Amino acid sequence: MTSTAGSSSTPAHNAPLPPSTTSTARSSRIAPHSHIKGLGLDPEGFALLDTAGFVGQNQAREACGVIVDLIKSRKFAGRALLLVGGPGTGKTALALAVSHELGAKVPFCPMVGSEVYSTEVKKTEVLAEAFRRAIGLRIKETKEVYEGEVTELTPSESENPLSGYGKTVSHVVVGLKTVKGTKQLRLDPTIYEAILKEKIVVGDVIYVEANTGAVKRVGRSDAYASSYDLESETYVPLPKGDVHKKKELVQDVTLGDLDAANARPQGGQDIMSVMGSLVKSGRTEVTEKLRKEVNKVVQNYVDQGVAEVVPGVVFIDEDIECFTYLRMAPTVICARSGGSA
């Protein structure tokens, strides 16, 4: 499918512009396309005059809006979109606008021709990694957790048997409060280390997984909300229900994340493992055997209903050689400068 980003829909150079109802305040730009916030379409899919940072290219924006609808409905996976036009006609801006319209939950992997050249990795391998990063996996899991606002955080110290003078944390007492009640937990010292790592204090809303002991800070309780105009803290309401509950946790990863995690596992602490990590500091390829094993595990999760595959988008800018290796991509957007397609 081809969408031509030409100058046919751009107003003439001497044509008077219609009056704009938007603010005349100058917006700050920190990058060439940081002002692009979306395609700027109305609910019917027609391009608006000056919206979301776009001016002109109405036909190309409307065509990209159709592509966005197809991607969201998962009817465009395995197909490609080619954006053709001269330099400066908005091909890259259209692709970035598509990524904004899809949202943060849909993987979008942009790349340019200069990224594919390496002395250690083949060009097809770089493209394969990009395609794997553009295929998301949404994992849904129901776990038993202890969730609530921290009302008490008291570590208990005892004499260290290995040292005559030092002390060590034997356990930590954590009080959690919800709308329905309160509960006091006596936790292991290793969980206290996770609490210190998350920088949890009294007044934070957290949850602790019952099986693994993993601690996650959700935010600050809105009862501690201050009157500051600007603040980096995220305030959340007091959790409802009991402290001990079953909660559905959703995690978004990509196949590229799973490949990287399995290709570089954490080694031991002996001297040979440390030396091996120093010697093998360069970039290495992920083998096809490992990818098949990851695919097998992912397929098992999908069959069980635990995970859901989310096809994403790969955007390749200005590299004609990359266009011949596109059979593994979920959705591809290509752009080239020049004449007609």
UniProtKB/TrEMBL annotation:
Record carries keyword Plastid: no
Chief subcellular location: nucleus
Task performed by this protein: DNA helicase participates in several chromatin remodeling complexes, including the SWR1 and the INO80 complexes.
Similarity field: Belongs to the RuvB family.
EC number(s) recorded for this UniProt protein: 3.6.4.12
EC top class, as a word: hydrolase
Keywords carried by this UniProt record: Activator, ATP-binding, Chromatin regulator, DNA damage, DNA repair, Helicase, Hydrolase, Nucleotide-binding, Nucleus, Transcription, Transcription regulation
Protein name as it appears in the record: RuvB-like helicase
Pfam families per the UniProt record, alphabetical: TIP49 (PF06068)
Organism: Ephemerocybe angulata
An example Gene Ontology biological process: DNA repair
Compartment list: Nucleus
